[in-house]
Amino acid sequence: MSDVTDFDSLRRAMADNSEEPEGPARNARAEQLLAEAEKLTIPLAVIEALGHQLKVYNYSSEKDKMFVPFARLLRMWDERPEDFDEYETHSLHWVFKWMSSGMLDQPHIPLASIEKWLGEMEHRYRLAGHSERAVRSAEFSVAAHVGDVARAERAYAAWLAADRDSMADCHACELHGQGWWQAERGRDAEAIRLWGPVLAGEFTCAHEPHTVLASSLVPLLRLGRLDEARAHHLRGFRLVRAMESMRGAYADHVEFCALSGNEARGLELLAERPTYFTDDGHPRSKLEFMAVVALLMDRLSELGLGGQRVPGPAGRDWTARELAVHARGEALALAAGFDRRNGTAHVSERARARMDQPPLVERLPLGVRTTATRSAGAAAPVPAAATVSGGSEGAAEPDLSALLIEARRLSDTLQPHAIEAWAAVSRAAEDVELAARDRAEIADHQAMDLGPEGIALFEEAAGLYAEAGDPGEALAARARGAYVRALTGAVPEALAVIADLYDRVLALYAEDGTGVRQTAAVLMSRARILMRRVHEAEGATQEAALADAKAAVGEVLALVDGQAGDDVRLAARAAEAQAMLAELAALAGDVGRAAELFARASEAFVGAGLPWFAVEYEARLAGLAHHLGDTAEAERALRAALEHGGPHLEAPGRAQLHLQLAEVLGGRGLAEEAAEHALEAAHWADEAGESRTLGAWARQQLGGFLLQQGRFAEAAEVLESALPDLTAEMHGDGAVVQTQWWLGDCLSELGEHREAAERRLQAAEIARHWPEQHDHATLAHLAAESLGHAGLHTEADQAYARADALWRELGNVHGLVRSLRARAWLALRPADTAGGRDGGQDTASALMASAISECTAALDSADDEEARRRLVGELGHTHRQFSDLLARSATEDAEDESIRAALEAALAQVTQAVAVFAALGDDALHSRTGAELAAGWLEADLSRPARAAARARAVLTAYEGHDEADEAARERRAEAEQMLQVVEEQDTE
Predict the structure, then answer these.
(1) 855-860 contacts, C-beta under 8 A, 24 or more apart
(2) In angstroms, what CA-CA distances link 77 with 74, 88, 92, 94, 96?
(3) Is 163 exposed, middle or buried (0-12, 13-18, 19+ CB in 10 A)?
(4) Phi, psi dihedrals of residue 319, rounded to the nearest 5°
């Protein structure tokens, strides 16, 4: 049986349907409601049902269905305009604009018909007495669409010159159209300026700032305003994600991803909306969507990923290369249909230009996690290997010589990429007979690159050095092999080997058989091995190991002291020795000395022209500074580490440093800069393949910093992206709870209260198992607030009751009182009381009385003055809220005596609030005067003008000589003056 039985039930059903998500289901319901309206035989019911149908069609992918109901409405108007009430008359003329743009979006409707319709619109608006502003705006849209720039500029000027009236689009939509035209004409900065009020939230509507945020993305990229572009994408995509009718804006976000190095994110967006590939109800937005699909797929192909599987139209699997061809064909076919209708080539030209755009940014980190663009089985593109030119042996020799010279230069000066340079030498020398020294150096560097697997190669290198007549370097190579052996855990074996090498190199050095550099290499390997023993030893054994290591490091310093000169290697030995002493000091518990020595080591590396070696020690120094509470030094060290590392920092290390710096800056309250470093940390963690570990941490922190700045939509996107990767096992359940908590705060600020409640309840469920229950209580309380805002009042009361019990158990009177007050307000709602409104009033009053009792009892036992003052303030606010609740319960349909009794009870409570706040003196002045004014209005309602006037004068007296800049004081004085005026009028009646 139908739920529509009369006009009122029809209107309720249409209102309910308007709240449903956009899409075919809502449209089908509107069609059904029209059929129900026709059964009522009320013309206005049919008119309203047709208007409802028009609206849901317009805000869906089935825009092409609008024309039939509008034609019927227009015929009804022409035949019997008296059947339309004022609202429906306005709506009919308003929808003319939808028809104009709707026709333009359908290529099968002839341009002549559109021009005729434009004239019809102008005629009817003139008859109805409307401004031509909306007509000129529609004319501008037609001219811009067909590419008639001169006419578009004339219509644009006329549009802006005409008076705004009730038929003009809302400010937000108008500004979007004006900014779009400026961007279309290449005036990006002017477009952003025009969109400013919409972006700032001054003007909004059902589709704004959604479309402005989307339209601003590419102009911002072109202007180089990358931070704004990132923010607009995160904020804007959240708005359009659930709105089926916004395929054009959705396309703008895909385009942004393709042009900013976020191809993987673009693929995720395509996967979220599979129907956008095939929905035909709005050809123009399908053209826009298919054009950016082609753009994204071509971009993937340019990156060597044309064979990757990608989301596409249902029914088959697609590679990027295949979808690029398909999407381009679809876009150009749709554009050709428009151009045939328009008699121009403008739409096709725009489509080609959009599809052929080059990237505007190599990579703009967004902070949100995306899956890898590359499929699991695809190999990453790699640069071509170094080759030796020429075909003969003689032609190859000069290239090999050059490679050898460069490799020796890099390794002798400890430059980054020395290992890679020797690898290039090795490849070039595969078919060349080299001298023993050359082969020794190749083997030595191959061994360094291989780590534990290269131990045998160190021995081979040693043999070749000996063959080349360099016994000292042979001993140094074997010492390097011994140290690598120690890294595998074989410390005793490594010590045995190094002891022999140590004796032999010292003897050789004493006989001038080798130089300082080779000797220092052996001594440093010995010191490193002894440092490994320190880390593995415990107790008394560690103390002995510490002493041995310290002595070994001292020998290195004694050997190289004053001998480094221009020898970078010797300078590096001295610097590393200082760092070893710093580490030993830290292990011995002398943190201050350790920090001093790490700083000295870092300075030595930088002074030697080797800043990249200082990165590790600045990072260690930052940790020690943090331990010592010296946040300024920690910040300096982390900044220095990032600066010293420069382009040589590996992605994992860069991510770690940025994340640590973000945490330090965040601790200092510098949320904006902290967010920048957290964003960098997330980006580099993704680059390092650590999205699920370090990347999740970085995103969690980034979300928190964005939340601190009030950037709630961006923060929500980032936190939602982080949450799937945050696990109790990897990150700790505290991180999971904090993320859910922050996300709940964001969603609450965004008005998504049901979702906020869900997040807060999930966090509370985890915190329920913690020994300390304060977080559990707070989250239960916050969840109750969200449930209440979401209209789930029964569930909200249950959550508040849970918080009540927790606050009571914790002895937190303030939390308990606030939850009791909140429950009282919930109880006053008639829908939530089985016993009717009176039963709700009784429950609400009982809860408020309980809150007062809890405050009073806590005051009786409080012995701390500050705690007492806080409780007094809480008691005052509770009396004040009790008064408001009682006053609100005095409904207009109650008996006069019942109303008077409620107002008297309310007056008694607010009078107590005045007295309580007065006890706090000037600290509670505004609270006291606010309560005094509330009491005055109650006195007036009870027909006691003299008492009301007395209270108003008391407020004015309280603010005599008060600071004029105090806004609260100005408001209180103004309200008191208003009260005096009202009661004087009462006296004269």
Answers:
(1) 855/813, 855/817, 858/813
(2) 5, 10, 9, 14, 13
(3) exposed
(4) -95, 165
Is the dihedral angle over the CA atoms 406, 688, 271, 176 positive or is it negative? negative
Torsion of CA 854, 855, 859, 860, to 10 degrees: -30
Question: For residue 566, what pLDDT is reported?
Answer: 84
Write down the residue that tokens 């020795």 correspond to.
577
Residue 208 DSSP SS3: strand
Instruction: Please give the backbone phi and psi of residue 282, each rounded to the nearest 5 degrees, phi first.
Output: -135, 85
Please list, residue by residue across 676-699, b when 16 or more beta carbons sit within 10 angstroms of its beta carbon and e when fewer do. bbbbbbbbbbbbbebbebbbbbbb
* Distance in angstroms (rounded) separating the CA atoms of residues 320 and 312: 9
DSSP conformational letter for 901? H
Alpha carbon of 755 to those of 239, 741, 745, 747: distances in Å? 15, 12, 10, 7
d(CA 655, CA 692): 13
**Contact yes or no for 828/848 (Cβ under 8 A):** no
Architecture of domain 564-649: Alpha Horseshoe (1.25)
**What's the rounded Cα separation, in Å, for the pair 217 and 178?**
16
Written as one string, the DSSP assignment of 291-351 is HHHHHHHHHHHHTT-TTSEE--STTS-EEHHHHHHHHHHHHHHHHHHHHHHHTSSHHHHHH
So what's the pLDDT on residue 397? 44
Peptide bond connecting 724 to the previous residue in cis, omega within 30 degrees of 0:
no
Least Cα distance to 620 among 646, 586, 667, 666 occurs for 586
Produce one character per residue of 101-120: b if its CB has 16 or more CB atoms within 10 Å, e if not. bbbbbbbebebeebeebbee
| CB 109, CB 103: distance < 8 Å | yes
**pTM for the full model?**
0.83
- The strand pairing partners of 208, in sequence order, are 205
Q: What is the pLDDT of residue 374?
A: 41
Residues of the chain with pLDDT under 70: 1-2, 371-398, 830-839, 891-895, 987-989
Give the pairing type, strands 318-319 and 309-310. antiparallel
Residue ranges per structural domain of the chain: 564-649
What is the radius of gyration, based on Cα positions, of the chain? 38
Length of the chain: 989
Residue with tokens 């959604």: 210
- pLDDT for 923-943, tens place per residue? 999 999 999 999 999 999 999
Cβ density class 8-33: b for 16+ within 10 Å, e for less: eebbebbeebeeeebbeebbebbeeb
With a CB cutoff of 8 Å and minimum separation 6, the contacts of 46 are 34, 37, 38, 40, 76
